[in-house]
Structure formats: structure tokens, C-alpha cells
Amino acid sequence: MITDKEILVLYYSQHGAVRQMAQFIARGVEQVDGARARLRTVAKVSAVCEATEPGIPDDGAPYVELRDLEECIGLAWAAPPVSATWPPR
């Protein structure tokens, strides 16, 4: 269902610091009247083609899907500042 003021808060975090930042962003979004945050993450990229991540993360937010982008009116992106690629390889 499309919510007219839902913001996708998308992040990648290896050690939890960026996840915490994304949670703070989501909390800020939730403080705006009528706005909701949809917290999502991405799977780690592997250089090995056969390596895959589980369909559902062990902890934290669910993985982002195309419908998350389609259904939200905005995007807040949280990523490690030292990374040249997102997510890191």
C-alpha cells in the first residue's frame, strides 16, 4: 500500500554504526506529522559469484525491494563515508 508520506531510509552497515545512524534518521522522519519511515538495508556484495546472502537478514531491517522504492515518496541514504563503492566489496 502506498503511503503518501512514507520515506525509505536505506542503509548498508558492516559493523552497526551506519545502521544506528539510519535508525536515528528514521526516528527523525517519524517525528514529522503524517510521515512514516520505512527502514531497509542491502545484502553485502561478494566477489565470488556463487556466494549469496540469506533471503532475510539475521538481524536489523529487511532487505530493500523494488516495491519499497516504488511506494515511498522520498529516500534517505546512509552509507559508510570512507567507502568508494556502496556496499563495499
Any overview of this molecule?
This protein is an alpha/beta fold. It contains 2 helices and 3 strands, in the order E-H-E-H-E. Strand 1, helix 1 and strand 2 form a beta-alpha-beta unit. The chain is globular and about 45 Å long.
Please provide a brief summary of the model.
This protein is α/β, with parallel strands linked by helices and 89 residues long. 22% of the residues lie in helices and 19% in strands. The chain has helices spanning 17-30, 66-71; strands at 6-11, 36-41, 74-78.
Chart the SSEs and their pairings.
Layout: E1 6-11, H1 17-30, E2 36-41, H2 66-71, E3 74-78
Please state the structural category.
Answer: alpha/beta
Question: Ranges with pLDDT <50 over ≥5 residues?
Answer: none
**DSSP summary, beta strand count:** 3
Report Rg.
14 Å
N-to-C series of helices and strands: EHEHE
What is the average of the pLDDT values? 82
Q: Percentage of helical residues?
A: 10-25%
For the termini, the CA-CA separation is: 34 Å
Order of neighbouring strands in the sheet with most strands:
2-1-3
Strand percentage lies at 15-25%
Tell me, briefly, the overall form: globular
Count of alpha and pi helical runs = 2
* Main beta sheet strand tally, sense and closure: 3 strands, parallel
